[in-house]
Design a protein that fits this description.
The chain contains three helices and no strands. The chain is mainly alpha-helical.
């Protein structure tokens, strides 16, 4: 059996090969991540469709219950008055909830303060390192 020993390669060539292979590895990892996220997104889309179907059934069921409430009140009041009362109660409740959500959302601060602070620290650190 003949042993073949590889010729020693210059360091520059080894570093160049390492950089090229690292780039290939990173591209392959990104491709794998995209494929994995795409597959999970497909599964999530099915689950979201199932949830939306359930939400639609809830809305339709709620509408029937509201109609039943109007009919129950119509036993003691004129039909128009029963519908008006139920409509005002639900519209007022909905407006109150929407306003509460709006006020809560208005107070949120969407600026990523921690990231901004970290970037400032990094910039300061790089400036110090470059000044050395």
């Amino acid at each position: 059996m003949i042993e073949v020993t590889p010729e020693p390669r210059p360091l520059r060539e080894l570093v160049s090969d390492l950089a090229a292979q690292t780039g290939v590895l990173i591209r392959q990892e990104i491709k794998l991540a995209k494929a994995e996220v795409g597959e999970k997104a497909k599964l999530a889309a099915k689950d979201v469709a199932l949830m939306a179907s359930g939400a639609l059934a809830i809305v339709l069921g709620s509408a029937v219950l509201i109609a039943a409430l109007v009919l129950i009140l119509a036993l003691a009041l004129p039909l128009w008055a029963a519908a008006l009362i139920v409509g005002l109660v639900f519209a007022g409740s909905g407006a109150g909830l929407a306003f509460a959500g709006y006020r809560s959302l208005e107070r949120l601060d969407f600026v990523p303060r921690q990231t901004v602070e970290t970037l400032k620290e990094n910039r300061a650190w790089v400036s110090l390192e470059l000044a050395k």
